[in-house]
Each structure stands twice: as structure tokens, then as C-alpha cells.
Write a structure and sequence with these properties.
globular, 376 residues
Length: 376
């Protein structure tokens, strides 16, 4: 019986709390959303299982978690907290992204820039309710709807908030089809949603090769601290477009990015332990995150409406909602909403332009916040 009691005391059941149970339920919900509703399954399945794993109680502090130096999970999580995984994901994104839509319609880039207003408005709001400037900057970047950027910046500005910011960022990316449509319909009229845009010009292969080099130089001179993310993004794109490194580009956009996504999602999920995750601060971050995302969506739409006042060639304002950098889901949502009003209206290619511009814009915004808030 003594041995039996010792076994019970060493089991997870003896140290389990309601908080652990609640977090396990959160992990299960994430997995179910991925499987049943197909919400970002490549992210939510690893992340959801990681949440479950990270909330298995460890009696006596055996030290198997992501915060216990020397454990396996600690070394996997190293890639998250040091910003290695986000940079590698940007390499893969660059290798699978076609910037032709953005290059063929430069004015649509402005919509991607306008959507970044959500970041800076939310930062002011976070500071107003008591978060430090560094914490506010890390929270505000959620509005960019770019998980790797959010993880990278929070690892530099507010490492203690990294798990909740990562979960919030990827959650809102997965919920784009739910969050954005009501805002899009509220801020546009049916007449505006019916606008058909002109076909963009065809981009030559030479232009595709020049673009990543030129864009990298321009963007990083604006925000030098974005050099890691943008460097990997445009390097990956150059591998794709130059025509002589197809093997490298294919590896970057398939095997490599899949491996990194698995490790990032799983280890981020495992870092969300109940004793630190369940707090008022976490709730406020989720609220601020959705506020930032909504403001970013509205910012792109409103700026498109403003551009229509001063230009002859009209823009379908729905396209502005794709300015958030949830690639390519935000662009798909724009197409769905346009198709709802007019089944023969195809705006997906146009929506890709502000969508990929949003990726660049959020990375530049992260670089600016890092530079200003840390005084680098």
C-alpha cells in the first residue's frame, strides 16, 4: 500500500488543478476546429496538442517542460524564443509567394500599408490600460495577423508574453473567415462590392528577379531591424524566381517549412501552462488582439474608399480587407464576399497585392517597434 500511495503521489492526477483541465479543453477545441472546420489545421493541430502536453502536471518538478533547462522541449522551444523558427518560416513564405500581383498594381500596396494602422492604434490602447511600451508593442503586432512576425517581435520585446501572443495571433489568423466578413459588409455598400477591377498587366521574368532585391533594399533601409524577417522573405522569393535554384526553393517551401511549422506550433502550444496563461492579462491581450485585427481590416477598407474619391480607376473596397497579412486566407475571404454579390466578379488576384504587401508591412512595423522601443 505504501508503494501504491507513492505511485499515486507521483502521478499527474495528484497535482492536477482546474486550470490544467481548462487548458486541456482549450487544446481539444483547437484540434476540433482544425479537423471539423478546417481552420488553419497545419497550425492548430500541432498547437492544440502542444497545449495539452504542456498542461500535464509534473509532481516534484521533474523538469520536462519548455521552461526546464536541459529538457527536450526546452531545446525545441529555443527556436521560438530566439526567433529562429519565424525567420525560417519567412524563408518558406518567400519561396511560395508570387509578388506579381503587388508589382503589377503598385497603388494596391497602399492598402497593405493602411491596414497596419491597427498595430499602432492598439499599441496606444494597450499603454493606456497599463501595459509597458514594450509589452504594448508586442501585443499590437497581433493586428498584423502574421504569426511568425508576432512571435519574433514578442520574443524581443516581451518574452514573458510570447505564448499568449502566439496563441492569440494564430487564433485570429484561423478565424479570418469569421471576423472579417461582418466588418467588410458593414463598411461597404452593395454598389461598392459590385465594382469590377481592371485586369493587371503581365509581369516579366526579369522584373520578378529584380523585385526581391530592390524591395529588400528599400524596406530594410526604412526599418533596418526588419532585416532578418525581410531578408529571409525576399531571399526565399529570389530562390523561386531566379530560375536556377528550383531545388532550393522547393525544399524551402515544402519540407523545411513543414518541419519548422510542426516544431513551432507544438512548442508554442507546450509553453501555454495554466499557472501563467490563465490570468486577467491574458484575457486583455486577447481582447486587444481582436481589436487590433478589426481596426486593421477597417483601415484597409476605408483607405480604399478614400482612394476611390481621388482616382478615376475604382477599387473594390473589399480588397482593402486583404491588407492584413493572413496570406492567402484574407484574399480568399475577399473573393468569397465579392462572389456573394456577383458570381462573375473575380478579385482574388487583386486582393493578393495588398495581402502580400501586408506581410511586408507588418515586418517593417515590427522592425520600427523593435528599433524605437529598445532604442537599437
Amino acid at each position: 500500500m505504501t508503494m501504491f500511495y507513492e505511485f499515486i503521489a507521483s502521478s499527474g492526477w495528484s497535482s492536477a488543478t482546474p486550470g490544467h483541465g481548462l487548458m486541456v479543453i482549450v487544446g481539444l477545441i483547437m484540434i476540433l476546429l482544425a479537423i471539423i472546420r478546417r481552420y488553419e489545421p497545419l497550425l492548430l493541430v500541432p498547437m492544440g496538442f502542444g497545449v495539452i502536453l504542456g498542461n500535464i502536471p509534473m509532481p516534484g518538478g521533474e523538469g520536462h517542460g519548455v521552461y526546464d533547462e536541459g529538457s527536450v522541449l526546452y531545446y525545441i522551444y529555443f527556436g521560438v524564443k530566439e526567433g529562429i523558427f519565424p525567420a525560417l518560416i519567412f524563408l518558406g513564405i518567400g519561396a511560395m509567394t508570387d509578388f506579381s500581383a503587388m508589382f503589377s498594381a503598385p497603388r494596391l500596396v497602399l492598402l497593405g500599408a493602411a491596414a497596419q494602422i491597427g498595430i499602432f492604434v492598439t499599441m496606444i490602447g494597450a499603454m493606456a490600460i497599463g501595459f509597458t511600451p514594450e509589452e504594448s508593442g508586442a501585443i499590437a503586432i497581433i493586428g498584423g495577423a502574421d504569426g511568425p512576425t508576432a512571435i519574433f517581435l514578442s520574443s524581443k520585446l516581451a518574452p514573458h508574453l510570447l505564448p499568449i501572443i502566439a496563441i492569440a495571433s494564430y487564433s485570429y489568423m484561423a478565424l479570418v473567415p469569421i471576423i472579417q466578413p461582418p466588418i467588410m459588409r458593414l463598411l461597404t455598400t452593395r454598389k461598392e462590392r459590385l465594382i469590377r477591377m481592371q485586369s493587371p498587366r503581365v509581369i516579366s521574368q526579369r522584373e520578378k528577379i529584380i523585385f526581391p532585391i530592390l524591395a529588400f533594399l528599400v524596406a530594410t533601409l526604412i526599418a533596418p531591424d526588419s532585416i532578418v524577417l525581410l531578408g529571409m522573405l525576399f531571399f526565399g522569393n529570389l530562390l523561386k524566381e531566379c530560375g536556377v535554384t528550383e531545388r532550393l526553393a522547393n525544399t524551402a517551401r515544402t519540407s523545411m517549412v513543414d518541419i519548422v511549422t510542426i516544431l513551432l506550433g507544438f512548442s508554442v502550444g507546450a509553453s501555454t501552462q495554466a499557472d501563467t496563461f490563465l490570468s486577467l492579462g491574458s484575457f486583455l491581450i486577447f481582447v486587444l488582439g481582436v481589436f487590433s485585427f478589426c481596426i486593421a481590416t477597417a483601415g484597409g477598407i476605408i483607405f480604399a474608399k478614400f482612394m476611390n474619391l481621388i482616382t478615376k480607376e475604382k477599387i473594390n473596397p473589399l480588397v482593402g480587407a486583404a491588407g492584413v497579412s493572413a496570406v492567402p486566407m484574407a484574399a480568399r475571404v475577399v473573393q468569397v464576399e465579392a462572389h456573394r454579390e456577383d458570381p462573375k466578379n473575380f478579385v482574388l488576384y487583386h486582393a493578393i497585392a495588398p495581402n502580400v504587401a501586408g506581410v511586408i508591412g507588418s515586418a517593417i512595423g515590427a522592425g520600427i517597434l523593435w528599433s524605437v522601443l529598445l532604442g537599437s
